[in-house]
Amino acid sequence: xxxxxxxxxxxxxxxxxxxxxxxxxxxxxxxxxxxxxxxxxxxxxxxxxxxxxxxxxxxxxxxxxxxxxxxxxxxxxxxxxxxxxxxxxxxxxxxxxxxxxxxxxxxxxxxxxxxxxxxxxxxxxxxxxxxxxxxxxxxxxxxxxxxxxxxxxxxxxxxxxxxxxxxxxxxxxxxxxxxxxxxxxxxxxxxxxxxxxxxxxxxxxxxxxxxxxxxxxxxxxxxxxxxxxxxxxxxxxxxxxxxxxxxxxxxxxxxxxxxxxxxxxxxxxxxxxxxxxxxxxxxxxxxxxxxxxxxxxxxxxxxxxxxxxxxxxxxxxxxxxxxxxxxxxxxxxxxxxxxxxxxxxxxxxxxxxxxxxxxxxxxxxxxxxxxxxxxxxxxxxxxxxxxx
Length: 388
What we know:
This protein is an alpha+beta fold. Among the domains are: 5-56, Molybdopterin biosynthesis moea protein, domain 2 (Alpha-Beta Complex), CATH 3.90.105.10; 72-264, Orthogonal Bundle (Hypothetical protein af1432), CATH 1.10.3210. It contains eleven helices and 13 strands. A five-stranded antiparallel β-sheet has the order 11-10-9-8-12, with helices on one face. A hairpin with a 6-residue loop joins strand 10 and strand 11. Helix 3 (105-120) packs across helix 4 (122-130). The longest helix has 26 residues, at 72-97.
């Protein structure tokens, strides 16, 4: 095929981002330029009978086409992985709680797939993660397991947008999933303590529960223990500040705050995602969150996160399809009217006037009067059964 070079799969370098497209013999793109080449991806090709692939370097100066809808097959794969990971983490937590042999290999394989699928299209994965819904009457552990999947997915998307190495993206993925593993069981050694103490100590308990799993790295356990630490030293359990925290911990810290505010417990109002993004930027400027990681999170999500319905200045309504990655207030939108195009607001005379409330009424506008409050902080008298 013109412009392509044939290479053996065995010659491809695992764990790196490609600077070329990888195609099959028929010219179908198997992996886009800039994607992670993982063991999961390569094993899938080998299982499909591939021994060689074609590589194609993109033209110099070319940019990714953002004006495209999500691939239906990718959405299905991501949704399937989310469901499988949610079930696996519940089983894993049960095994830990029963002190039986806990198997992490299946989870690691699923997360390898998750990282590669998120990297293939971060916006599609964020769309799926944002769409994970829970019912207020659901079993607590099932709700919390899905929240852990959201944490893993949005944290991984942020790490990828920040161009972190593959190993660090994997750590974010795994630590995001495991960060509340103690709350899926019990907290050894703290029975009889006040609920606030249990919540304050659960990051350390989660890390300790992972000590019995030899394949879980010390770095992953460190990140699990640090998720709730704030950059200004006001977090818990140790009150560490930004200079003492890993970049992976700092990423998950802001993702956790976002999820707490858009999908909180039963006693707290859930706020519109766009308002929460603005709120987090405000508190980043105040020093509560790490600037570099908050910047990566905003680039991944935009101020108007994927799936947000917005009103434009020409009175049209639209739905945010993609982050533009370069302009936080000018995402890629799909006009809601029939047969209307996908629009890159960076290159359009149109602009967003405001986010629109949902028909369901689940999320409310965040009042300006609450902008300076630390709304993501758990109440000292809160029960761990209603908080993450």
